[in-house]
Amino acid sequence: MSDTKPVVTRDDLGAPGSVVATHYWHLLDDGRIQCDVCPRECKLREGQRGLCYVRARIDDEIVLTTYGRSSGFCVDPIEKKPLNHFLPGTAVLSFGTAGCNLACRFCQNWDISKAKEYDVLADQASPAKLAAAARELGCRSIAYTYNDPTVFHEYAIDSARAANAAGIKTVAVTAGYVNPEPRREFYEHMDAANIDLKAFTEQFYHRVCAGSLRPVLDTLDYVANRTDVWLEITTLLIPGLNDSDEEIDQMTKWVVDNLGPAVPHHFTAFHPDFKMMDRPRTPPTTLTRAREIAVANGERYVYTGNVHDPDGQTTYCHACSDSVIERDWYRLGDWRLDGEGRCSSCGVACAGVFEAHPGDWGPGRRPVRIAGWKS
Fold it and tell me: Does residue 141 contact residue 192 with C-beta atoms inside 8 Å?
């Protein structure tokens, strides 16, 4: 890392791409500085970077090196995050930066999450420009995704403030691997989150992700029970590693007991990628079995993903079992909720953030450039 780039504060940002000072760190007795954003708590000497690669020690403080720069912007359906109960059918402006604070061997965005920052950061946008672009593109929300927003904490929060001021909702797509104090600040600015629950054993998190399960469970509990953030969960099922009946049974019982039965849970299919090319794709029958176990344990809204399964992607009323939102991939079909989000058959409310009518964005994906956008 060159030491010629100016370190600025978030109140005096200058051009996007500045190296920005952060505040979640402290000095250790041996002269190292500990980054306190996530449970990894990297301890750095001058010029060193954390495992995420984008938080570094420069001039005796921890800085974020990717503020205002992105690996790309794209308008997506909100269902792709995946969020099935948050403004269905609407468009979301999605973006990420580079780096990640986990090291999942199966990462399906590894070209972004494990890239050296300058390899992929081809676009720039200030928080104000992001909000303006989202509004003009007809997006109801902005999603921090592709890599984990935990590692670009300051950029995500500043852009969330700008988005909220412009009437744009904010969405975090994250592994939930974050320490309590930054977690509290981060979720003060989020409207919805999809949090990965990658498995339900410490062994999996340690061997496959170089992390720990406990902090993720703590984040799920915090978001579900101590915030107003709309929460959904995703579990990627990998054959032979986290897809046993016993593990799915324990996981879904924990979800119901600790988060409640109304948190939507997405079971998605693995495909070989990154450092895990030796595992087969997840059979659709595995996802169906996981869904059946979850429903039997009391989860009301359980979905399958990364496969063509209209039945497993449709929302059903938990009271009368009628379909209330039909889906086929990311395309909505019949909508059977009234203006207050209640089942048109029995009148029982469906959990979620709904409007009187669904959006009409459809399954399309539209890459956009933000750098030249007028804010």
Answer: yes
- Write the pLDDT tens digit of every residue in 358-370: 999 999 889 888 7
DSSP tag of 165: H
Q: What is the spatial distance between Cα 257 and Cα 318, in angstroms, rounded to a whole number?
A: 17
User: Cα–Cα distance between 354 and 374 in angstroms, integer?
Assistant: 31
**Whether pLDDT at 223 is above 60:** yes
On the 0-12 / 13-18 / 19+ scale of CB atoms within 10 A, 321 is: exposed
This prediction has a pTM of 0.93
- How many CA within 13 A on the CB side of residue 60? 3
Neighbours of 280 (CB within 10 A): 11
Domain residues of the chain, as ranges? 7-64, 69-309+356-367
Tokens representing residue 272 in the block = 């070989």
CATH class for the region spanning 69-309+356-367: alpha beta
For residue 116, CA distances in Å to 111, 125, 157 come to 9, 19, 23
